[in-house]
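Practice problem: predict the structure.
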Amino acid sequence: MDGFGKPITDRWVTLGRITGVHGVRGWVRVQSFTRPAENIFSYGPWLIRGVELPRLEHKASGRGFIVQLRGIEDREIAEELVGEEVQIERSALPEPGEGEYYWADLLGMQVVTTEETILGQVDRLLETGAQDVLVVKAGSREHLLPFVQGPIVKKVDIPARRIEVDWELETEE
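Answer:
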């Protein structure tokens, strides 16, 4: 799921991605998928490739962060981590409140209209500033639906992996 982590497994959830290296001492650049972005440091321990890599230090840098991980002490080793996801154990996350969802919970869910028309599956989410947007894919077709609970998103059924929306498809002429 390019952009916002992988769907939650029974065990791990993705909080960010290593996007590059910084300097020669093994620091890595990290893109956070949390809101606010610095919340990525509220959770741990971090798992990268399924291995626990504790954070020693972190700093804000541009649109992301630079992080020093224990055991990663030179640029060459750090370069091997570029593209890897930063994950934590699912149990480290607090349960969301009523009507709240982790983006990762929504990934892969089937999206249907109130008339039971299947629109596809949630491929990813976009943050636009005004509201979050579900990117729903059905084959090669994509639908962008504002994630506005009430007028558009009528029901999110996590156990059934289904989102019901009040949305009309545009007809092609």
